[in-house]
Amino acid sequence: MIELLKDLEDDLSEMFDIHFTKHELLDEAFTQASYVNEHPHQGLKFYERIEFLGDAVLQLVVSEYLYKRYPEMPQGKLTRLRAAMVCEASFSDFAKECHFDRYIRLGKGEEKSGARQRPSLLCDIFESFIGALYLDQGRQAVEKFVRQVIFPKLDEGRFDHIIDHKSELQELLQRNGEVEINYELISETGPDNDLVFTVQVSAANQVLAKGSGHSKKAAEQNAANKALQKLRNRN
């Protein structure tokens, strides 16, 4: 298992430039109770306590980021957006993207039952890793990691079902009066069963951005999102 921990540390170093100083924290964060129960004389700890801390840290870091990024978004929508980002489905996806599923220490029964790919376990492991990172290196390291892994998903449109970028863009552009905003379909590519639509959004006869999606609505949302990013970067 020392070799497994070494491989995990190598992966963290290569992917995220993360280097743990307290290796026992990382060991604890990736150990399930079933493994501890099968090795009672090794004095091992399992992840549940450290997961408890990681959950709280993630809630705070994501909440602060959303609060600052969307200054006009009402509390109810902020809450729904955070719930979509900080949930089992999202965290299990993030864990797999980070290769965390490769390094979980499981008991033989749990391994045979397919627990390694169980969303609830992957979610727990993601949270416990955050807890370990926080204890080892502090909040700044957690924020750096989350900015690499979670926040880019907003720009990729993963949570567009919560955020209405078109309404947000309209509110931003019309703060000082009416502005005509137009969405124009400029291309359709791909086979009929997998079409990709490309749309450009313009305001006051000026093209702001282009976006793509597998429906016209998704392409418009993507274009609005890109326009918002450009406008925010100017300020």
Automatic annotation (TrEMBL):
CDD domains: DSRM_RNAse_III_family, RIBOc. It comes from the Bacteria. The keyword Transport does not apply. Belongs to the ribonuclease III family. This is Ribonuclease 3. Digests double-stranded RNA. Involved in the processing of primary rRNA transcript to yield the immediate precursors to the large and small rRNAs (23S and 16S). Also processes some mRNAs, and tRNAs when they are encoded in the rRNA operon. Digests double-stranded RNA. Involved in the processing of primary rRNA transcript to yield the immediate precursors to the large and small rRNAs (23S and 16S). Processes some mRNAs, and tRNAs when they are encoded in the rRNA operon. Processes pre-crRNA and tracrRNA of type II CRISPR loci if present in the organism. Homodimer. Its main location: cytoplasm. Mg(2+) binds at E51, D124, E127. It catalyses: Endonucleolytic cleavage to 5'-phosphomonoester. It is found in: Cytoplasm. Residues 164-233 form the DRBM domain. NCBIfam families: RNaseIII (TIGR02191). GO terms for cellular component: cytoplasm. PROSITE patterns: DS_RBD (PS50137), RNASE_3_2 (PS50142). Its cofactor is Mg(2+). GO terms for biological process: mRNA processing; regulation of gene expression; rRNA processing; tRNA processing. The active site is at D55, E127. Residues 5-138 form the RNase III domain. InterPro entries: dsRBD_dom, RNase_III, RNase_III_dom, RNase_III_sf. Residues 213-235 are annotated as: Disordered. Its EC number is 3.1.26.3. It comes from Pediococcus acidilactici DSM 20284. Keywords: Cytoplasm, Endonuclease, Hydrolase, Magnesium, Metal-binding, mRNA processing, Nuclease, RNA-binding, rRNA processing, rRNA-binding, tRNA processing. PANTHER family: RIBONUCLEASE 3, RIBONUCLEASE III.
